[in-house]
Amino acid sequence: MLPQSFTERTLDARALWPDYRPTTLAGFPDLANRLQVAHVSAKLENERPLGNFKALGGMIAGLRALARVADDVNARVPRLICASDGNHGLSVAAAAARVGAKATIYLPAGANPIRADRINAMGGEVLWVNGTYDDAVDAAAAAAAAAAARGEGLLIPDTSPDPNDPVVKDVMAGYALITHELRDQLQARPTHVFVQAGVGGLAAAVAEGLRDFMSEPRRVLIVEPESAACVAHALAAGRPERISATLETSAEMLSCGLASASAIEILRRHNVYSIVVNEPQLEAAVEVLRESGGPQTTPSGAAGLAGLLHVASSARLREEHRLGPDSNVLFLVTERAASQMPE
Fold it and tell me: What is the per-residue pLDDT for 41?
């Protein structure tokens, strides 16, 4: 049964987690020195419940979706269904557990079994798809359509070909809490923000929430693995198109072949820039962050830093993006290392 207090209007990410507090904004003066910029800071989303920023998206979107269909609070709560590489599915499973519902999460064959175990521990059912994340998206959508026809399921995607998909918009609204916190925490307005992209939802939320808060040259730089740069492709094409790349990358949370239409619409409006990094750069960023006193994370979690290091190491890119001694740079650490994932 869906609690009467869970209405679509009142659901807020801050109210959904016990002991809510903003995640840390950490400064890295030694790294700033090394990169010859004024300031480098990082928003440590590895501190979120569940160990990653997606705790803000799937949870609130799942509960809002349930609130929209809960005409009778005594009716059976529908099953929540989604595709994931691991983190979004865990958040959706947490939403279902919050109201005593079931969740089915479709994972691609290459997903880390540790992530599947965490979803199972949350009470979610994991179904494996012999294919990529995008194949899992298709499988989840087909299953949800069949379940919805019987009144038994709701799709909770973090990506959609429909730019007006209300659930995807709710996911990004959950991520927007990050930018609300940053506006309170940042002492100097950033000139450059490096943010990783899978399907683009986090990047869109950050661009939407910070673009008018930034100082010149106002660079929001979207960072992707070269083997899964679906957002860069969509920005160049003017619309999402499934890419033909292998999608094989150590940044497994960014292994996506088709960008979200909602995200691309926002990113195009804010004139963001694309940065593509290779596997050695992704893996090196994890070590640079650790050596600089930052948290342990994954190549996905450190991808924003990988983009910063890539730009900072190139005279051409420094000039193109106006990165210099007066720059105030922000990046996001989006998840904990697998060995530190909370139970």
Answer: 98
Which tens digits make up the pLDDT trace of 237-253?
A: 999 999 988 899 999 99
Instruction: Tell whether pTM > 0.90.
Output: yes
What is residue 12's predicted lDDT score, i.e. its pLDDT?
A: 74
Instruction: Give the up-direction half-sphere exposure of residue 45: CA atoms within 13 A in the CB hemisphere.
Output: 30
Q: Using alpha carbons only, what angle is made at residue 338 by residues 336 and 342, rounded to the nearest 5 degrees?
A: 70
> pLDDT per residue over 129-177, tens digit each?
999 999 999 999 999 999 988 888 999 999 999 999 999 999 999 999 9
Q: What is the DSSP letter of 1?
A: -
Q: Give the start-to-end residue ranges of the domains of the chain.
A: 13-53+167-340, 55-159
Do the Cβ atoms of 92 and 103 come closer than 8 Å? yes
Pick the CATH number of 13-53+167-340 from 1.20.58.2050, 3.90.1150.180, 1.10.357.10, 3.40.50.1100: 3.40.50.1100
DSSP string, 16-81: HSTT--PPPEEE-HHHHHHHT-SEEEEEEGGGSGGGBGGGGTHHHHHHHHHHHH-SSTTSPPPEEE
Cβ count within 10 A of residue 163: 16
CA distance 60 to 203: 18
